[in-house]
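Narrative of accomplishments. A recurring question from our advisory board has been how the design workflow behaves on a single, concrete structure rather than in aggregate. To address it, we present the structure tokens for one chain from the evaluation set, followed by the sequence designed for it. No filtering or post-editing was applied between the two.
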């Protein structure tokens, strides 16, 4: 099994029966469900794995795709057969993609760090505007608060935008 394969998400082997897949899904869903203390993203992965492996046609297509990609990796100098194998972008620009939640790209560590810095600046502006600057100039405090309200959407847009194609 590949690292992070759908079989691994459910904790089963490739030869598992439909009943074993259903039981593994219930067990994994109970553990990963947000109401039970799990993470929403891990629950989405479990649900996506069951959606594919629980349907015989989708399971066959998934197994064929895994076999083809393993075959392509085994051949030296072979390129991936589909653009989605190369991160879904021309030129092989890679960006982590979660297949469990519909192929939504995840920001890399640098983007997450920029986002967190922007949020810290926003918080600092709110605190300064509400405590220090307000004592000296109400219009300056209001300006800082308006600027602080613009930062979060701008940070989200900057993290969510696709990387430039090269």
């Amino acid at each position: 099994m590949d690292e992070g394969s759908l079989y691994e998400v459910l904790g089963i082997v490739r030869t598992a029966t439909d009943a074993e897949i259903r039981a593994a899904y219930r067990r994994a869903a109970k553990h990963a469900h947000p109401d039970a203390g799990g993470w929403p993203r891990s629950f989405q992965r479990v649900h996506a794995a069951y959606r594919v492996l629980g349907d015989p046609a989708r399971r066959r297509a998934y197994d064929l795709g895994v076999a083809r990609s393993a075959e392509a990796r085994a051949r030296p100098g072979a390129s991936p057969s589909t653009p989605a194998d190369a991160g879904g972008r021309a030129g092989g620009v890679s960006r982590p993609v979660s297949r469990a939640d519909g192929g939504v790209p995840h920001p890399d560590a640098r983007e997450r760090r920029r986002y967190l810095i922007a949020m810290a600046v926003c918080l600092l502006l709110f605190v300064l505007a509400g405590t220090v600057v307000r004592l000296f100039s109400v219009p300056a405090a209001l300006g800082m608060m308006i600027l602080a309200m613009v930062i979060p959407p701008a940070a989200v847009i900057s993290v969510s935008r696709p990387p430039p194609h090269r």
